């Protein structure tokens, strides 16, 4: 069911969705497909772009889905029925999160083609596969140090080990680097790379100015707010200002009528409206945090009912803790909060008193 914010946006395709293993054309040379995800967020949008590379006609894939047998089977159905007999020439990944890069190794091997991705996200994906920063005891200890006391959630987090490596069993051994401002000739179109920060290390969106189309990845989503969080791999990180600056730049540079192709939800128009909604959302959450800290210092865990007014399962709690820390850290790094660590080893945040 649409919420009042969604009703301020325009959905050119209405409620129409591509069937599993099939595609819909959303712009000339741009086809939309959806793959299921094994999470509460149950789908990801992927894109096929008509391409020409090294004298060959074919397709570019943008984002991959997670690696499991069902998704591979759906991809094989796409290959058999949707490519008009042409090959895949390259695999473009907007960023390193598992639902975007998970099958990159299989797709590039399947078609003997190259992965295209920012250098930062390729490197961080490799780091995430080789460390325990994406789960396990390190993450459980990190959230416990920020006040999370739910034994079941901490046990689930500790036992699942390196969750990233479970969802991304391998990565291509090589890649081609995408850079902010780079122009990609994909078929007859020219797509400009737009780097965004805060959600991922160096997220790359693609903008075709002539067609008025933005492949937004996760930077601008129509129904939900993009996850922006602090993790144990960068425990003092300050990602929220980076994210807000990134989407403000997109709104400043791109026309209001741009067709936005998000990674989750439906294609929409209303980019400037949506960016303003997201800015207001985070401004309200920051104000909520400051109001909650008026009486006494608090932990990130104690901010969860302030920021999330719905029940959270263990998986959602980890994302919620990361987001709560992003809001606290923006205020802390911005000089509006102080952080201290008690004798119990737990970090608490307090409002900074005027000098």
Can you walk me through this structure?
The chain is an alpha/beta fold and 355 residues long. Helix content is 34%, strand content 23%. Strands 1-2-3-4-5-6-7 form a 7-stranded mixed beta sheet. Strands 8-9-10-11-12-13 form a 6-stranded mixed beta sheet. The protein has a two-stranded antiparallel sheet with strand order 14-15. The longest helix is centred in the last third of the chain and has 22 residues, at 271-292. The mean pLDDT is 94.
Descriptive key words:
alpha/beta, 7-stranded mixed β-sheet, Sec-metab_biosynth-thioest, 6-stranded mixed β-sheet, 11 helices, 15 strands, Metallo-beta-lactamase, Chain A
Short description:
This protein has 355 residues and is an alpha/beta fold. The chain contains eleven helices and 15 strands.
Give the quaternary arrangement of the chains. Answer: single chain
Number of helices: 11
Radius of gyration: 21 Å
Q: Describe the main β-sheet briefly.
A: 7 strands, mixed
Tell me the overall shape.
Answer: globular
- Please list the strands of the largest sheet in the order they lie side by side: 1-2-3-4-5-6-7
Question: Approximately how much beta-strand content do the residues carry?
Answer: 15-25%
Report the average pLDDT across residues. 94
Q: What is the helix/strand order? A: EEEEHEHHEHHHHEEEEEHEEHHHEE
Low confidence ranges = none
Could you outline the blueprint of secondary structure elements for this entry?
Blueprint: E1 24-27, E2 30-36, E3 43-53, E4 56-62, H1 69-81, E5 88-92, H2 98-101, H3 104-111, E6 114-118, H4 119-130, H5 137-144, H6 151-159, H7 163-167, E7 176-178, E8 183-186, E9 189-196, E10 203-208, E11 213-217, H8 239-253, E12 259-262, E13 268-269, H9 271-292, H10 304-307, H11 314-333, E14 337-341, E15 347-351
Parallel strand pairs: 4-5, 5-6, 6-7, 11-12
Antiparallel strand pairs: 1-2, 2-3, 3-4, 8-9, 9-10, 10-11, 12-13, 14-15
């Amino acid at each position: 069911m649409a919420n009042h914010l969604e009703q301020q946006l325009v959905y050119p395709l209405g409620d129409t969705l591509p069937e599993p293993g099939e595609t819909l054309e959303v712009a000339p040379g741009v086809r939309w497909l959806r793959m299921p995800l094994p999470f509460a967020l149950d789908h990801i949008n992927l894109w096929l772009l008509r391409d020409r590379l090294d004298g060959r006609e074919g397709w570019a894939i943008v984002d991959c889905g997670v690696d499991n047998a069902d998704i591979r089977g759906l991809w094989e159905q796409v290959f058999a029925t949707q490519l008009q007999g042409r090959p895949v020439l390259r695999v473009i990944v907007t960023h390193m999160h598992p639902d975007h890069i998970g099958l990159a190794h299989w797709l590039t091997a399947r078609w003997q083609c190259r992965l295209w991705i920012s250098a930062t996200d390729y490197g961080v994906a490799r780091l995430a596969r080789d460390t325990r920063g994406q789960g396990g005891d390190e993450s459980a200890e990190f959230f416990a140090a920020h006040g999370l006391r739910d034994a079941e959630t901490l046990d689930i987090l500790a036992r699942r080990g390196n969750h990233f490596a479970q969802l991304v069993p391998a990565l291509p051994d090589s890649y081609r680097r995408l850079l902010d401002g780079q122009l990609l000739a994909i078929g007859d179109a020219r797509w400009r790379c737009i780097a965004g920060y805060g959600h991922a290390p160096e997220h790359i969106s693609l903008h075709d100015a002539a067609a008025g189309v933005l492949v937004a990845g996760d930077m601008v989503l129509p129904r939900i707010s993009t996850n922006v969080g602090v993790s144990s791999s960068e425990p003092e990180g300050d990602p929220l200002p980076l994210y807000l600056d990134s989407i403000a730049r997109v709104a400043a540079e791109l026309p209001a009528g741009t067709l936005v192709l998000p990674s989750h939800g439906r294609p929409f128009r209303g980019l400037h409206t949506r960016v303003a909604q997201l800015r207001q959302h985070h401004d309200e959450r920051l104000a909520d945090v400051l109001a909650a800290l008026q009486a006494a210092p608090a932990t990130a865990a104690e901010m969860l009912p302030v920021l999330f007014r719905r029940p959270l399962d263990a998986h959602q709690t980890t994302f919620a803790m990361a987001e709560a820390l992003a809001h606290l850290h923006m205020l802390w790094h911005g000089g509006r909060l102080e952080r201290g660590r008690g004798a119990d080893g737990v970090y608490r945040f307090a409002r900074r008193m005027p000098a």
